[in-house]
Automatic annotation (TrEMBL):
Organism: Cuerna arida
Chitin-binding type-2 domain residues: 17-81
UniProt superkingdom: Eukaryota
One Pfam assignment: CBM_14
Transmembrane intervals: none
Cross-referenced PROSITE patterns: CHIT_BIND_II (PS50940)
Annotated protein name in UniProt: Chitin-binding type-2 domain-containing protein
GO molecular function annotation: chitin binding
GO cellular component: extracellular region
């Protein structure tokens, strides 16, 4: 049985200094002000609109690991260096164009009637 951490900061509030202005759309960012007990996601609410920040908390005994962009046990998270890994969010958007698969898969053909 895992005991709840006695250090879990129930009194913490989401970081207020964080801004999505210079961040990557769809990126996950550790809330360093809240000691990485939470994280932000920067998403676009409207086409060509500004990026909006949404805050989420990790569960008890976990913190947000910026390298893996997941909540992990407190011992596995070095919050003070999280900012060094913000650039990993670029990998989120490096997916292939879904239309490329469709073009390769489907070709027009004549149907006998």
């Amino acid at each position: 049985e895992v005991e709840a951490s006695t250090t879990y900061p129930f009194n913490l509030k989401p970081g207020t200094q964080f801004s999505c202005d210079d961040k990557i759309k769809g990126g996950y960012y550790a809330d360093v002000e809240a000691e990485c007990y939470g994280y932000f996601i920067c998403s676009q609410g409207e086409i060509n609109g500004p990026l909006l920040k949404s805050h989420f908390w990790c569960g008890p005994t976990t913190k947000f690991n910026q390298r893996s962009r997941t909540c992990q046990t407190e011992a596995n998270v070095a919050c003070s260096v999280s900012h060094r890994y913000f650039h990993l969010n670029k990998d989120i958007l490096s997916l292939p164009d879904p239309d490329d698969d469709i073009k390769d898969t489907f070709e027009p053909s004549k149907v006998m009637t």
